[in-house]
Amino acid sequence: MSEEEKGFIVKDRRSFGENGTLKSEQTEKPEKSSEKPQDVEKKPKGPPAQKREEFPPLPEVNFSSLILSLSSSVLFHLGEIPDPQTGEKTKDLPVAKHGIDTIAMLKEKTKGNLSKEEGLFVENVLTDLRWRFVKAR
User: Which of 3, 14, 38, 100 has its CA at 20 to 30 Å from residue 59's CA atom?
Assistant: First the structure.
């Protein structure tokens, strides 16, 4: 055989099969297919199209949306936002402090690179979260 005729072997080392069970638990071994990879129908990844439309649109990716996301997490850990699944408010002050410290670190690391509005926004968010943290103690 020439080098062009030599193929390669692809071994699937995943623990789970297509049906979600462990490969060692599968009763039937899949038959070897003579289909070439380009002949195999590609399945779309992710939820079906109708499910994707049910989710609200994602916010624009920018520095302010990152800060808002982090501050929402802090508010959750301060017990000001209820858990969406249980509806219960719980406090985890060390994690809330970590979130506040993360925003403060981002403020420091981005110093000089933020617009005036972004700088004021981060400062206002930090001030608000720090006051809420003090009140939560």
Answer: 100
Q: Where are the alpha helices (DSSP H) in 1-137?
A: 49-52, 63-77, 93-109, 116-136
Backbone angles phi, psi at 83, to 5 degrees: -65, 125
Cβ-based neighbours of 40, under 8 Å, separated by 6 or more: 33
pTM for the whole thing? 0.60
CA 117 to chain centre: 27
The tens digit of pLDDT for each residue in 85-124 reads 999 999 999 999 999 999 999 999 999 999 999 999 999 9
Please state, in angstroms and rounded to a whole number, the distance separating the CA atoms of residues 60 and 34: 46
Backbone angles phi, psi at 19, to 5 degrees: -90, 5
Residue 122: which residues within 8 A CB-CB, separation 6 or more? 67, 103, 106, 107, 110, 114
Do residues 23 and 16 make contact, with C-beta atoms less than 8 angstroms apart? yes
Phi, psi at residue 28, to the nearest 5°?
A: -110, 135
